[in-house]
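Sequence, please.
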């Protein structure tokens, strides 16, 4: 079966089965990040939120936002290739659009109440200019939400699971750096006149569970992994405002929620 046909079948099943199919066939960390974004949508200072999802991938976040549709004014998902997304989400109840973009090139989609960029920066050699562009898209009283691998977690698990801490010397789709720390994001925020509101932690994994997940790369293996060991404990999904000393090497990703400096923190 060709990749194009597989993509078509996947889109069809997603349209027919929705979240249930997505839960079974996707990496659990993707779903946890989508739920994490939905949390901040529900708690946004605006009554209804315009969202820019940078590096939207297969737009799992949009599926999750159906559960908070009354809080979403609009959703724009951007990535290098969003072909098929319009048909996948045809007649979806949340106002949405998709745009293809090379994040390394100049781009400007306007100003948004919530700009999200989840697990993207670690793939980019020139991450600082992209981070600056993310900040430029944040509306007055808006928020920026970013997540990346946590460097202490990747370093720790790389000693246990061969290849887990591998980085690529070129920008080829793999990670070009192990991850980020709180200090990394503090420096990036200050350089762009942003202020961190919360440091969060996503996807807690014990070594053996991570080993199984890391090696479940193909669709059949992923389906079997999700059936055999579903991640249903929300305490494993994400922690808002957790202590870095406790969580940085036990949670796969670090999440940073921030605002423009000088803007109110609430309301």
């Amino acid at each position: 079966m060709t990749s194009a046909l597989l993509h078509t079948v996947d889109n069809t099943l997603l349209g027919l089965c929705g979240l249930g199919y997505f839960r079974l066939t996707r990496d659990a960390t993707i779903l946890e990040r989508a739920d994490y974004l939905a949390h901040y949508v529900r708690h946004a200072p605006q009554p209804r939120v315009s969202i820019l999802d940078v590096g939207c991938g297969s737009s799992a976040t949009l599926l999750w936002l159906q559960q908070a549709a009354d809080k979403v004014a609009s959703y724009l998902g951007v990535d290098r290739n969003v072909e098929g997304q319009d048909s996948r989400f045809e007649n979806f109840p949340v106002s949405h659009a998709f745009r293809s973009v090379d994040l390394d090139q100049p781009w400007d989609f306007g100003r948004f109440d919530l700009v999200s960029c989840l697990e993207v920066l670690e793939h980019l050699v020139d991450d600082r200019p992209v981070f600056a562009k993310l900040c430029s898209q944040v509306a007055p009283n808006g928020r920026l939400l970013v997540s990346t691998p946590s460097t202490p977690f990747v370093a720790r698990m790389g000693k246990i699971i061969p290849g887990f801490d591998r980085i690529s010397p070129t920008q080829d789709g793999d990670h070009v750096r192990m991850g980020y720390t709180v200090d990394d994001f503090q420096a990036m925020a200050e350089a762009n006149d942003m202020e961190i509101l919360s440091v969060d932690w996503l996807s807690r994994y014990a070594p053996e569970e991570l080993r199984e997940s890391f090696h479940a790369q193909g669709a059949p293996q992923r389906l079997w992994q999700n059936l055999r060991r579903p991640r249903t404990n929300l305490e494993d999904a994400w922690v808002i405002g957790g202590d870095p000393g406790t969580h940085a090497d036990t949670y796969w990703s670090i999440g940073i929620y921030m605002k423009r400096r000088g803007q109110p923190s609430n309301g």
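The chain has one domain: 3-260.
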